[in-house]
Amino acid sequence: MRRRAAALLLVLVVGLLAACSQVVVPTDPDITVSGDAGGTPILTYVAPLSVDRTYRRTVWPGTGPELVDGGQVLLRYWVEDGSTAGPPISENYSTSPIPQVLSLGDLGTDLYNTLKGQHVGARLLQVTPPGSSQAFPVVTVIDVLPTRADGPAVAPKADLPTVTLGADGTPSIKPTGTDPPTSLVVQPLLRGSGRQVEKTDVVTVQYAGFSWATGEAVDSTWDRGQPKSFGLADVPAFAEGLAEQPTGSQVMLVVPPTYDLGATQSEALKGQTLVFIVDILASQPEGVTR
After folding, report:
1. Would you call 124 helix, strand, or coil by DSSP?
2. For the chain, how far is it from start to end, CA to CA, in angstroms?
3. How far apart are CA 232 and CA 239, in angstroms?
4. How much helix, strand and coil, in percent to the nearest 5, is found in the chain?
5. Strand partners, 258
6. Angle CA(60)–CA(64)–CA(65) in degrees, nearest 5?
7. CA of 153: how far to CAs of 149, 150, 196, 210, 249, in Å?
8. Secondary element (H or E) of residue 33
9. Which of 80, 130, 248, 257 has its CA 20 to 30 A from that of 263?
10. Whole-number Å distance between alpha carbons of 213 and 271
11. DSSP labels for 126-177?
């Protein structure tokens, strides 16, 4: 009886090992992501890709603040059809980064899980299998951009308004009580390290505008909850003031009423000297891709 039981146990063990040997272990897709920070990514892989689950990888980690659940994120993305490895089917490196909220409802499960726990400055790779919304694997590279300026402080001139920043970066000013300047004043407050802005660029900025006389806020992207993108040529005073400033900088612009603010200037503000605190988050020549 003992020999028969031992023989039966041996048969069961051999059968279990055989079954285990037939289990297919998913393999990660072989994808190389190259390209410099701030530039378009270059993806190298053999198409068609075969993936049966969402794959995600940190190409490089961010060194900025950790992303906060429910907080703002500013994203660049590059999306390819993994069955062809052709040109991108969607991208915003040639236009403007997109502001989003880090939540399941805004981003969907895959992108939310890819971004959760990451830091500003990260470059991330996500590969999703074919599904109900698309018949091919989707390869996506995401760059996480800052939502506020960051860099060494620059001491402002003594005759300019004092700037105070809230915990989230929202600026306020204390007026000087003196007569306003008659020419455009450009005062860097934080010195960024990105590419220099050109007058014909499309920029993405956070800004707040104030009355020189009272310090009262008159316009603010911070109040609207997300940065704004526009062509600098459409706002001549900003084009003149922000040209040659490095991306990532915070700049004070004191704009007399003789300078053109384009569509950003309402009738109620005409004739006033305004103070703008501008965080330059992104800048690129209009319509340029790799």
Report:
1. strand
2. 76
3. 5
4. 20, 35, 50
5. none
6. 125
7. 11, 9, 18, 21, 9
8. strand 32-34
9. 248
10. 12
11. EEE---SS-SS-EEEEEEEE-SS--S-B-PPPTTS-EEEE-TTS-EEEE--S
Q: Where are the beta strands (DSSP E) in 212-261?
A: 217-220, 228-231, 250-255
Task: Give strand pairing partners of 128.
Answer: 138
Domains along the chain?
A: 32-145 (3.10.50.40), 162-285 (3.10.50.40)
The DSSP result for 64-112, as a single string, is SPBP-TTSEEEEEEEEEETTTT-S-SEE-SSS--EEEESSHHHH-HHHH
Instruction: Give the mean pLDDT of 146-167.
Output: 95
pLDDT of res. 27: 82
The angle formed by the CA atoms of residues 274, 73 and 64, to the nearest 5 degrees, is 90
pTM: 0.86
Which candidate, 191, 203, 204, places its Cα nearest to that of 252? 191
pLDDT > 60? residue 219: yes
Lowest mean pLDDT among 24-33, 132-141, 229-238: 24-33
d(Cα 59, Cα 160) in Å, to the nearest integer?
43
Please say whether the beta carbons of 67 and 135 come within 8 A: no
Using CA atoms, how far apart are residues 122 and 40, in angstroms rounded to an integer?
14
